[in-house]
Amino acid sequence: MSKPLALLFACVGILLLSAISLFMSLKMPWLALLSSLVALGFIGYGFVLKAKLRRKNNNGS
């Protein structure tokens, strides 16, 4: 995974996790739960993408 792409995933992941804490502090449990699911999916997608790109680079070289 390229460094700019990894930085993008890290920053968006941090924003999503921050949104969870914000919604918890504002006592909005449904939005906190929704943000948790979105964050989990986004971070999981980042790991899947990293694995796919690593496999693609190993097969190509």
Question: How would you characterize the overall build of this protein?
Answer:
The chain is mainly alpha-helical. It has one domain (about 10-55). It has two helices and no strands. It has helices at about 5-25, 30-60. Helix 1 runs antiparallel to helix 2. The longest helix is centred in the last third of the chain and has 32 residues, at about 30-60. The model has no long low-confidence stretch (mean pLDDT about 95).
Concise synopsis of the structure shown:
With 61 residues, the chain is mainly alpha-helical.
Task: Please give a handful of descriptors for the protein shown.
mainly alpha; 2 helices; 61 residues; elongated
Question: Looking at the structure, what is the overall shape?
Answer: elongated
First-residue to last-residue Cα separation: 15 Å
Strand elements, count? 0
Our count of domains comes out at 1
C-alpha-based Rg, rounded: 15 Å
Instruction: Decide which structural class fits the backbone.
Output: mainly alpha
In terms of topology, how is this protein built?
Layout: H1 3-25, H2 29-60
Helix pairs in contact: 1-2
